[in-house]
């Protein structure tokens, strides 16, 4: 007999996730992963027998649990939040990364589920993220004791508009690698990449581990659409080798050649270029060069991101504040002197607010790294797990 498990499906920004309660899952990790894979219908390219959407942006998971009273890092939080990137064609779940888009939905979920007392006009939700061991502060607009979903805030890549949820990722700086915002201590590193030779890259860690490279060093303009990037298999292989070399340099894996198997989601790879105009890949229309401070494209789970990841948004913003990085170099002159950075991505423009400072010992402090998103509860009900998996 199939096992019933309560679930909620929520959109957060440009992603969608299945929300499960920690108490409803097996404590044994192997059993838990088997159940989750069955819920999503993985491994299968179409995820036809589960809730997955056959796309990395819709094959995401949020596990919500009670506050960790025995962990001093979680002091003053309302809940724990574990993010999982569920593989589509392989029976694997990546637990090493964090999704900024889904983090917005976590805040709304907490209010809907009564995990935090609603307070109008904005309820601050403090979520302890177990992937990074850090606290996210999520500001959720509230009206009538419930999250406010209607509003005029537009997220490129999402139809319509909604109420803005603000997430501050400042506390996640250095959490993925344990080595600070610049894991190697350098604004630019030279990576020796098999088949490519030496390539300059900036390695950063906030929200998730990231590696940024210049578009021109890859023979690109930085304005290419996701479909064009995905169609170039040789380029995708080269980018994965760069990502693997960065993962090894950052200490995430021991062997760059095994990046796809051991750490498919982190680091996220960003391709950056100076401000330029281009055609939107989603929704039609164009983005003008004067509307952006730089252009950027992402590779996520070995595919080109159709929009721009939330954690990548804040990481790009912080990188633009650090002289010497390839992101700072690409940004419009003077952009690093403003609080807000405008990033041109395939679906439009996304903004982030960043503040950084440097201690006397040279360490970089991130004081602000924000992302604005919208979220919507789509479904709540019961998912039935096949007997063999549950």
Describe this structure in words.
The protein is an alpha+beta fold and 390 residues long. The chain has two domains: 173 residues, Roll (Diaminopimelate Epimerase, Chain A, domain 1); 174 residues, Diaminopimelate Epimerase, Chain A, domain 1 (Roll), CATH 3.10.310.10. It is 17% helix and 35% strand. The protein contains seven helices and 21 strands. The strands form two sheets. The protein has a 19-stranded mixed sheet that branches. Strands 14-15 form a two-stranded antiparallel ribbon. The longest helix has 17 residues. The chain is globular. The N and C termini lie close together (9 Å). The model has no long low-confidence stretch (mean pLDDT 93). This is 3-methylitaconate isomerase. Pfam families: PrpF.
Care to give the gist of this entry?
The chain is α+β, with helices and mostly antiparallel strands and 390 residues long. Helix content is 17%, strand content 35%. It has helices spanning 29-40, 100-112, 226-231, 233-249, 259-262, 310-320, 326-330; strands at 3-12, 15-21, 60-65, 79-86, 93-94, 122-129, 134-143, 146-147, 165-168, 189-193, 197-206, 208-214, 268-273, 278-279, 286-287, 294-300, 303-304, 340-345, 348-358, 364-373, 375-385.
């Amino acid at each position: 007999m199939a096992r019933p498990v309560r679930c909620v499906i929520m959109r957060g920004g440009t992603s969608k996730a299945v929300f499960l309660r920690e108490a409803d899952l097996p404590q044994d990790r192997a059993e838990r992963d088997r159940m989750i894979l069955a819920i999503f219908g993985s491994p299968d390219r179409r995820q036809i027998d589960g809730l997955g959407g056959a796309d990395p942006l819709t094959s995401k998971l949020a596990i919500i649990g009670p506050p960790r009273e025995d962990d001093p890092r979680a002091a003053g939080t309302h809940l724990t939040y574990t993010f999982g990137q569920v593989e589509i064609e392989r029976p694997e779940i990546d637990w090493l990364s964090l999704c900024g888009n889904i983090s917005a939905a976590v805040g709304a979920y907490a209010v809907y589920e009564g995990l935090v007392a609603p307070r109008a006009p904005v309820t601050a939700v403090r979520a302890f993220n177990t992937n990074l061991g850090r606290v996210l502060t999520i500001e959720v607009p509230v009206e009538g004791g419930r999250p406010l979903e209607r509003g005029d805030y537009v997220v490129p890549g999402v139809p319509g508009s909604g109420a803005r949820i603000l997430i501050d990722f400042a506390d996640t700086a250095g959490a993925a690698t344990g080595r600070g915002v610049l894991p190697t201590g350098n604004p630019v590193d030279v990576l020796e990449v098999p088949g490519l030779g030496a390539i300059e890259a900036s390695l950063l860690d906030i929200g998730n581990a990231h590696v940024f490279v210049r578009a021109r060093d890859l023979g690109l303009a930085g304005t290419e659409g996701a479909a064009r990037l995905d169609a170039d298999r040789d380029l995708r292989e080269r980018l994965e080798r760069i990502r693997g070399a960065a993962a090894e340099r950052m200490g995430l894996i021991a062997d760059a050649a095994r990046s796809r198997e051991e750490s498919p989601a982190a680091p996220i790879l960003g391709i950056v270029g100076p401000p330029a105009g281009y055609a939107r890949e989603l929704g039609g229309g164009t983005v003008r060069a004067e509307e952006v401070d730089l252009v950027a494209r992402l590779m996520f789970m070995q595919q080109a991101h159709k929009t721009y990841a939330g954690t990548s948004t804040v990481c790009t913003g912080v990188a633009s504040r650090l002289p010497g990085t390839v992101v700072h170099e690409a940004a419009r002159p003077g952009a690093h002197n403003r609080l807000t950075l405008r990033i041109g991505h395939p679906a439009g423009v996304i903004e982030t607010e960043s503040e950084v400072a440097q201690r006397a010992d040279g360490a970089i402090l991130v004081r602000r790294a924000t992302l604005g998103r919208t979220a919507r509860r789509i479904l709540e009900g019961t998912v039935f797990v096949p007997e063999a998996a549950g």
